[in-house]
Request: fold
Amino acid sequence: MYCKNCGEALNEGQAVCVKCGVKVGQGSGYCANCGATLASNADVCMSCGVAVKKSAASNSNENLNGQDKIVMILICFFLGGLGIHNFMMGETKKGVLKLVLFLVSCGSISSIIALIDLIKLAMGNYVADPEKLI
Reply:
């Protein structure tokens, strides 16, 4: 097993790369199977043929940098019951559902759902499609 950030060989059960200090499994520059350098958009390692696993950060709200995350948290806090943050993240169906629930229940149900989204955003557990982020 190799570090995906620097390509250094790792021992079994190692949690952090000793050379670069990055958690095992994070990074995308090197193949975890053989340590060869990978192209930035590679799906398969050209040296060993193993499928490249994308890091979890590329699938979560880690795609939101610090300022964008704060903006989304503020929008969710103030306009979350209307689903505005969902529209901004490309989740149109969820945004429309919150908007309808806001109108039907005078905001109570959609505000509870928005509170859950707010907590997920703040904790870094909110998963949105990174291709749709504005």
Notes: Residues 56-61 have pLDDT under 50 and may be disordered. The radius of gyration is 19 Å. DSSP finds four helices and no strands in the chain.
